[in-house]
Design brief:
single chain, 6 strands, 12% strand, elongated
Length: 292
């Protein structure tokens, strides 16, 4: 048992004084901090001593290198450069067999992108094809069931001007490679109108909306998802040309166009649609005016 005096001290410290536990922790932390300060000071002193030693060693190394250069023999740099020139190895000639020289090997052909080039522009109706581009079959976004979207495809179409429907305008249509999905672009010849989208329908609908604003009606000329047709990608000549490329066989979702000319008549008739044809647009407007 504790004596009476010690018992009273313990009671006063632990029962009456509620902050006794915090005071004890504070003193303990204070001691730890003081030890860390002393330890940090000693480490700093050790680092400063090592730095001084390092500087002395560096100065000694510089002094020794200067002394070494004075005792080394001087070398003629020009003579050394002449003697150390490396001769190019001449290719060894192959031995002839029975007096017949072996045929030289052909250099390995570099891998080239299979781009369907057009020597001269191909015109079909209001569409002129300048470049068929390169077929991308690794991702399904570069083809649909009725059209292939080759990267680098470039064509132009004559249609109504976006500011004056009574005058013709040449629109340049391009398919741009942009990673896993292509980007489509329509731009007029003077570069005053330019629209880029994720699909041909998106670009074409924007152009048709401007034409409808000029006519004073929002849906007088419906787009009817004619973006592929406006770009010329559904033309029989374009589809057959793209189908000739071996890469088209790997476009699994694409349905090839048959070679029978009877199947091409519907597509050729669709070229007179007012959303893609300048003449078809004005024929529709004339019929609309005659009714009203």
């Amino acid at each position: 048992m504790y004596p009476v005096d010690n018992r009273n001290i313990w009671i006063n410290n632990h029962v009456n004084n509620r902050n006794y536990g915090y005071d004890y922790k504070r003193k303990k932390l204070k001691k730890v901090i003081k030890d860390l300060v002393y330890e940090n000071a000693s480490i700093c002193d050790e680092i400063s001593l090592n730095q001084e030693k390092l500087l002395i060693v560096r100065e000694q190394c510089k002094f020794l290198t200067k002394k070494l250069k004075t005792f080394e023999p001087q070398i003629d740099v020009s003579a050394a450069s002449v003697n150390t020139t490396v001769k190019k190895a001449t290719p060894r000639k192959k031995a002839t067999t029975n007096g017949v020289k072996p045929k030289p090997r052909r250099p390995a052909a570099k891998h080239k992108k299979k781009i369907i080039e057009v020597q001269e522009p191909i015109t079909s109706g209001n569409v002129t094809i300048y470049n068929f581009g390169e077929i991308v079959y690794d991702t399904p976004f570069y083809y649909s069931d009725c059209a292939i979207y080759p990267a680098g495809y470039y064509a132009s179409r004559t249609y109504a001007h976006f500011r004056n429907i009574f005058s013709k305008c040449t629109y340049h249509c391009k398919v741009i490679k942009a990673g896993s999905s292509p980007r489509f672009e329509i731009m007029d010849h003077d570069k005053h109108f330019k629209v880029t989208g994720l699909s041909t329908d998106e670009c074409h609908s924007h152009l048709i909306s401007l034409i409808n604003k000029l006519l004073g009606a929002e849906d007088l000329i419906p787009a009817n998802r004619n973006g592929d047709r406006f770009f010329g990608l559904t033309l029989p000549s374009v589809r057959l040309k793209l189908q000739e490329a071996p890469e088209s066989k790997f476009c699994t979702g694409y349905i090839p166009l048959e070679l029978q000319p009877d199947n091409h008549e519907s597509e050729l008739k669709a070229e007179s649609d007012p959303a893609v044809s300048f003449e078809g647009l004005h024929n529709t407007l004339n019929r609309f005016r005659s009714r009203h």
